[in-house]
Write a structure and sequence with these properties.
alpha/beta; 29 strands
Length: 406
């Protein structure tokens, strides 16, 4: 059974998560961030899936109901959405990642899966969990922790594994100032991906022990995993062993799009001729809710008023009417009017860009109406007064910000 933890707010995405949880944020024109973990589970052959939600979950739950309702109980498949609902007592919502599983332990045990794959619902990557499950069984571990290899001093923001030569975890430290190196690779460290494989009986026992500990924060990375490392057998699984790559992907791809800058870069990178992430790999599709839309449309063909898109991704239902788009991503239902110009724009669904507007290095939230002639991305000081401007120079635009311009 795959259990996806999707309750996080994602506050570093600023206004993008004012009305939706981070896993529900749009990505790549058609998908949501959570679709990657769910698609990995489905493509790995897992047909029992549960998603725990909490923070501002309506958008996420609506997406899951529309896009992931094809699993059928009569085929021994299940898909459960598990909002925080004070099931253990009448005071507690989900207190941490481990508690979000503990509060639904009766549901899990009713299905009686032999193994549990615990997943974070807020990262972009393609991974075959079957490979990780196989290692877990072969190693006899009580928990197997998915890890990515990162430069050692970039691991200070992660949970970091100290491993021996056989990849048994000897220590687990959260956000260390001096991360432990991989044996034989002094400049690299193993950082946790927030992916864990347990035997279900082991997980249930650990969750009950943790729930009874009044001093615990009830978190996998801070409490459960360090306890198993100290008292039992924990093994690291290296992402490069199970990452899924088409012939077009040169290196393992994993991204935490937890800031506006990181989110912008990951989306705009998809416009590269050969991007680091191949969304066109039909052998490992990213499943999502497929809206019924007409094809994208480009109209007008006169100098200065030509509907065109260069090095860009344009989703269904978009109309590029006499506007110029370069190195941008247009989500479903975007409408660009004549003489508008977009460069380095990540545009979420159903945005309307007025005549003559110029947008450079921006993220535009869903449903925004850009007024005629608005210029963003050319005057940093003016941008910072009107919009959310990041340290990397990316401007986040919401409808509330546009309304304040009046």
């Amino acid at each position: 059974m795959a259990y996806v933890l999707a309750g996080g707010r994602g506050s570093r995405l600023m206004e993008l998560t004012d009305r939706r949880a981070k896993p529900a944020v749009y990505f790549g024109g058609k998908s949501r961030i959570i679709d990657f973990a769910l698609s990995n589970a489905l493509n790995s052959g897992i047909r029992r899936i549960a998603v725990a939600t909490q923070y501002k979950a309506h958008s996420l739950i609506r997406h899951l109901q529309r896009g992931w309702n094809f699993l059928r109980p009569e085929r021994n498949e299940t898909f459960d959405i598990l909002p925080a609902s004070q099931r253990v007592d009448e005071r507690s919502w989900y207190l941490g990642t481990a508690d979000a599983v503990f509060q639904n332990l009766d549901i899990i045990e009713d299905y009686a899966p032999r193994f549990m794959v615990i997943l974070a619902g807020d990262h972009i990557y393609k991974m075959d969990y079957e490979q990780m499950l196989a290692q877990h069984v072969e190693s006899g571990a009580e928990v197997t922790v998915g890890c990515i290899t990162v430069p050692r001093m970039e691991a200070t923001g992660f949970g970091v594994m100290h491993v021996d030569a056989a990849d048994r975890i000897t220590a687990f430290v959260e956000k260390p100032a001096d991360p432990p190196a991989i044996p034989g690779e002094p400049d690299k460290a193993l950082a946790s991906m927030g992916i864990y494989v347990f035997d279900t009986r082991v997980l249930a026992a650990e969750l009950r022990r943790d729930a009874a500990d009044a001093h615990s924060t009830h978190d996998f990375g801070k409490d459960l995993i360090p306890h198993i490392v100290a008292k039992g057998r924990a093994v690291a699984h290296r992402f490069e062993r199970s990452c899924v790559r088409s012939g077009a992907e040169a290196a393992p791809y994993w991204r935490d799009v937890g800031t506006v800058d990181a989110y912008w870069h990951a989306n705009v990178d998809l416009t590269d001729i050969v991007p680091d992430l191949d969304l066109y790999d039909r052998a490992w599709p990213i499943w999502t809710h497929a809206e019924v839309t007409p094809p994208a449309k480009f109209v007008h063909d006169v100098e200065g008023r030509r509907g065109e898109a260069i090095s860009s991704l344009v989703s269904g239902g978009c109309i590029v009417s006499g506007a110029r788009v370069r190195r941008s991503l247009l989500s479903t239902g975007t409408h660009l009017h004549s003489y508008a110009a977009l460069d380095g724009a990540v545009v979420l669904p159903n945005v309307d860009v007025g005549r003559g507007a110029r947008l450079t290095n921006v993220v535009v939230d869903r449903g925004v109406r850009i007024p005629d002639g608005l210029v963003v991305g050319e005057d940093p000081d003016l941008d910072a007064e009107r919009f959310r401007r990041t340290e990397g120079g990316i401007c986040l635009i919401t409808q509330a910000m546009i309304d304040r311009l009046d």
